[in-house]
Design brief:
CATH topology of the largest domain: D-amino Acid Aminotransferase, Chain A, domain 1
CATH class of the largest domain: Alpha Beta
Shape: globular
Strand order of the largest sheet: 11-10-9-12-13
Number of domains: 3
Radius of gyration: 20 Å
CATH superfamily of the largest domain: ATP-grasp fold, B domain
Strand content: 25-35%
Order of helices and strands: EHEEEHHEHEEEEEEHEEH
Structural class: alpha+beta
Helix content: 10-25%
Distance between the termini: 10 Å
Number of helices: 6
CATH architecture of the largest domain: 2-Layer Sandwich
């Protein structure tokens, strides 16, 4: 939209999202605001850009797709948010992912082979919610999705905006806050003693290419791609976050990406 200063409309999965709020407050020159799917907002297809922050629902004010400039269309966000459709889509596009199945019988076979299975009872959850870990067939539970645990050499989050890498982070232990025995290796989330850092990183070019290809495979315009690198130095995509937490440098990088693409030239 060269020559036109568009209005950036933030369409969040939840109006209470702190990251969506931070984005809207940080883009005053775009007269940015957050809107509801069933609110009174009226879209101006000549000058408005919809920045969809993790919402899988087409809003009531949606009309003709061709008359809306979307960043992350809702139908594509759905593919990314649902773990089953995400993994299936990536597999079809030859993007490497951990081994997975929707069959309990297949999960039983895998665990009997000595593999650790994550029984994912929730397919649209984050931070490890809904995961039951099975190292023996007797520990398996009914779940819509089962994934095989990979032994991690490293885990990364790579943020993509408009086909460019705008942030690169690595998950590390919060060793100065937790005792060693409090750090859980099975589910690496914040509550278990892991955080994303960007200092003193050796960025792996293959991970950046994998993240870019993942966003393309899901037909997204932006997102945070979570990648695991195993002990054999092979990388796999774990999931894609279409509404990642934003603060500090990461927030500024998204703001920079938006301004670079939509501000006056």
């Amino acid at each position: 939209m060269k020559g036109i200063m568009p209005r950036i409309i933030i369409y969040p999965y939840n109006l209470g999202s702190q990251s969506a709020k931070a984005l809207a407050q940080s883009l005053p020159e775009f007269r940015s605001k957050r809107v509801r799917p069933d609110g009174r907002y009226k879209h101006n297809w000549n000058s408005h850009v919809i920045l969809n922050w993790g919402n899988t629902e087409l809003p009531r004010w949606y009309r003709d797709e061709k008359r809306h400039l979307w960043l992350n269309h809702a139908t594509n966000v759905y593919l990314a948010v649902d773990k089953i459709t995400c993994l299936q889509t990536l597999k079809e596009k030859n993007i490497p992912t951990p081994e997975f199945t929707t069959s309990r019988a297949e999960a039983d076979r895998l665990v009997r082979e000595g593999k650790t299975i994550y029984c994912r009872t929730l397919t649209r959850a984050s931070e490890g919610r809904g995961i039951v870990i099975a190292t023996h067939w007797s520990e398996l539970v009914n779940a819509p999705l089962y994934t095989v645990r990979l032994i991690a050499r490293g885990e990364y989050r790579i943020h993509i905006f408009n086909n460019k890498v705008i942030d690169y982070q690595k998950k590390r232990r919060v060793s100065d806050l937790l005792e060693e025995e409090q750090v859980d290796e099975n589910i690496r989330n914040h509550n278990n003693g892991w955080v994303f850092c960007r200092d003193n990183l050796n960025r792996i070019e293959g991970n950046e290419i994998l993240a870019l290809n993942t966003i393309k495979a899901l037909n997204l315009d932006f997102g945070a791609v979570d990648i695991i690198r195993d002990v054999n130095r092979k990388s796999y995509v774990l999931e894609v976050n279409t509404a990642p937490g934003l603060m500090g440098t990461t927030l500024q990088n998204y703001i920079g990406g938006i301004k670079q693409n939509y501000a006056y030239n």
